[in-house]
Amino acid sequence: MSGRLVVLGSVNSDLTVRVARHPRPGETLLGGDLSTGLGGKGANQAAAAARAGVAPLFLGAVGTDAVGDTLRSGLAGAGVDVSALLTIDGPSGVALITVADDGENTIVVAAGANDRVDAATVRDTVSALDAGDVVLAQLEVPLDVVGTASASTSARFVLNLSPAREVPAELLAACDPLIVNETEAALIAGDGSPEELVERLLPRVRSVVLTLGGDGALVADGDGVRHHRAPRVEVVDTTGAGDAFAGALAAALARGVALNEAAAAGVAAGAEAVQWVGAQPR
Questions:
Q1: Mind listing the domains of the chain with CATH numbers?
Q2: Is 53 marked as binding a ligand?
């Protein structure tokens, strides 16, 4: 049976410039034209879920500046329900992104309103959800807000541990699945092969999905470990791949799809996302 999908997370204005290579410390490089677009891990994942056919309710905040109005309309235009999106005094979130010719990126985020998402509003919304619903969260909003969401709902809780940080054991225990790449997994599970990382993580979470970039993803739960390989595609920009993966996976779970099949949908979405410039298709 299909359920509702709620995405708790950040929404930013992405300012992106292409460069031949990333600058060294203290170095100035000339880049290409500046492009502006809708971004933030929460917004990216919500838009990816909408592209996958599930219109999510978005929980987050924008500022009272003109950027906030643009972000709100951008989310709505992407097929996301913005009825619960807060407007908070002050600036909206902004991400400064450089993309090199090899497709790799660096990102610096000024959190703005994302850092002031209200925990009480989040609790009131997610506590009304049912067990067949899904909550998808990341870590570009305050950790205590994410913890409140996981502790206040009977819905399936999915956490993308990005940006990587240590999180309380009770938050990990609620994850079904925890979505991590190898760097994020190593932060909380130590160094090791992808198979070793998921084996160490699995006792601490209900299920785990470890993304492997061009090699696809590992899925681990009570049924064992499975490897979903990614199709070979031309890589233009890796900025949106992880968020496209998480959004498509959560959308599939909300439709009632099993985790293994949902991860396959995530791999396909991630492979598609590396073929355009920016976090979302223009």
A1: 5-10+41-90+114-273 (3.40.1190.20)
A2: no
